[in-house]
Amino acid sequence: MKKVLLFIIIGITIGIYLFANDVYALSNFTISGRLKDVNGNPLQGSISVYPIGAGNFTGSAQTDSNGNYLITALEGLYDIQYNINNFSTPFSIKFLSVNLNRDVNNFLMYTTEYTGKISLIMNSSENYTLKISIDKEPQRILINNSQIDSVSSILNLTDNKWFYNEYNRNLYVMPFRKTLPWLRVEGQWIVDELGRRTTLRGVGCSYIAYGNDAWLEQYCQWMNETGTNTIRLLFQTPNPDNLWNWSDQQNWYDFDKMNHTLNILQQHGIYAILGDSSPCGPEGLIPNYSQYWINNWVSIAQAFKNNPAIAAYELLNEPNGDMTLMGELYRNCTEAIRAVGDNHIVMCDQRAFQNASQILPNMMLDLHGYAMITGGAFAHETGIGAKNWFPEDADLNSTQFTAAEIYASNWISKLLQGRQRFNCPDMLGEYTAYNYSLSSPDVYFNQLLLKMCEQYGISWLAWSFDAMIQNVYGPNGMTFWNDFVTQKLGGPFTSNYVPSSVPWSQTYNICPPTLTTAEPQQFAQEVYTFPALPFNIWNYIDSEVSQLYLGDYVPWGPCSVSIPSIYGQYNYSVVFKGPCKLKVQRWNSGAPYWGTVADSYYIKLGEGETTTVVSNPLYKWIVVYAWE
């Protein structure tokens, strides 16, 4: 816990030591303690709690004979005034805008008068600017026994600085805040100022962090305990003239809101990824109003270019439409950010790029890896999820566990391939569970994803765990993640750095030799080396006589192959060889994941046996999975 020792010399000396107990927020809170001097002798006085700026107090208490006091108040911002009666001259000090979001015990540790001087030590874990009402300007202030400088204006107030406003007699002190190492891209890795490979481990937050300070404090403390280090703060480009649709004003970027939230994160050593989630499409922000999007990012860059607590700018969440155009817009936006002197990492959707020459310095990529293997929140809307993908299986649960292995392997191998192909970091930018039972295949899918990410040094960012914690589990919602980390991942993460056992250069390509030109041939080596679950399907494909479709969108990887027809527009054939068991799905509506499964069946091949699966004009897609 941070401890701040602050001495103020005015002709008398005031020492203030700031601390507050770390307990979980309640609906009502107490301000309690014992007024005493440095030797433990009780002092007499009164304590009053006021709504900020108000004359009428919310609560007050006189000390008893032992100096004890107790006040109860609802959560909120208050001014707290202490009046001490024991000194030669009555002494009073008021602490302004104290955020009462937890029980506070011994806020004032001791107060002592000696040789015409008064010394106070006070306890608080407040991480923001301290505001103190005091009659005279201090001559000097020390924090942790080191003198800090004053500034001439509150606008110049930064870490370890103070300002005294002689007109309202308020003292403003900004304690030292935790500083995080600057991050940058070096080849395929995220590294800090010392060149140490860093893993970003994120657990959501989206829009929930703003304005929920007490909850966010708990959330950050819980993140510290489990070793996660990154929060994603989403926003939308402001749309005051209502130029595009699907714009939510309460989510528009706001400097004050963002800056306040970043300060809280920084105090807990938590990185932030700032992400624009504005809508795309003909009626959305992108591409028709892309200059507004670029201008907003320039505004953000001007405000936060010197803030190391921001790990990256996620320029646009899940863009759609013309991805070649999106790649150009990504580069235009990045160049505009760099033009104002901001060199933060920028993060872009991998689908917008075709080769490494398009990647700008200090740029990383991400993919969103979902499986929805247990149906998920959207199964009733689109027919996706394992219950619809494998409807004929009697043993559905076993099927779903196999599906979890397939999709975890496919997503991680795509990230590894992207990292090598583009020579930059490739992050698992979203994933989640829709079933929070620790024995569910959904949780198994998450377990596999994160274990593989840790194995290969891939950064990851969960979606919706914060919503689950706040809305599903309520006050004790963090239990799920604690249990998940302990029981499924082997315990809390103990370091932000990629272990030395992970090689700097890795080759786990999954693209096989192919007759198409969908993928560069230089990535066609070592296809059989990726340790996929349940097994690597490319060891059971006769690639010399197969025509393979390797498009980026539909499911394919070390565990599955997609064979398109799109009603006769394509003609592909894939030859499989035993011994193995395969599962075949035929989709008659839409592409895999968004469409629906027409039927499915198994193929079991013995040693030396082969079978050929070809495009079928009756179906849009056929997907073949490694099964057992």
Layout of strands and helices, then pairs:
Elements: E1 4-9, E2 13-18, E3 28-34, E4 45-51, E5 59-62, E6 68-74, E7 76-84, E8 91-100, E9 104-105, E10 108-114, E11 117-122, E12 130-133, E13 140-143, E14 146-150, E15 161-165, E16 170-174, E17 184-186, E18 189-191, E19 201-206, H1 213-226, E20 230-235, H2 255-267, E21 271-276, H3 290-304, E22 310-314, H4 323-339, E23 345-349, E24 363-368, H5 379-382, H6 386-389, H7 396-422, E25 426-430, H8 441-456, E26 460-462, H9 465-472, H10 478-488, E27 560-564, E28 573-577, E29 580-589, E30 596-605, E31 610-614, E32 621-626
Helix pairs in contact: 3-4, 7-8
Please characterize this protein's 3D structure:
An 11-stranded mixed sheet has the order 2-1-13-14-15-16-12-8-7-4-5, with no helix packed on it. An 8-stranded parallel sheet has the order 25-24-23-22-21-20-19-26. A 4-stranded antiparallel sheet has the order 27-32-29-30, with no helix packed on it. The protein folds into 3 domains: 4-174, Immunoglobulin-like (Sandwich), CATH 2.60.40.2190; 184-376 and 422-488, Glycosidases (TIM Barrel, Alpha-Beta Barrel), CATH 3.20.20; 521-626, Sandwich (Jelly Rolls). 21% of the residues lie in helices and 29% in strands. Residues 1-26, 376-387, 470-476 and 509-526 have low confidence and may be disordered.
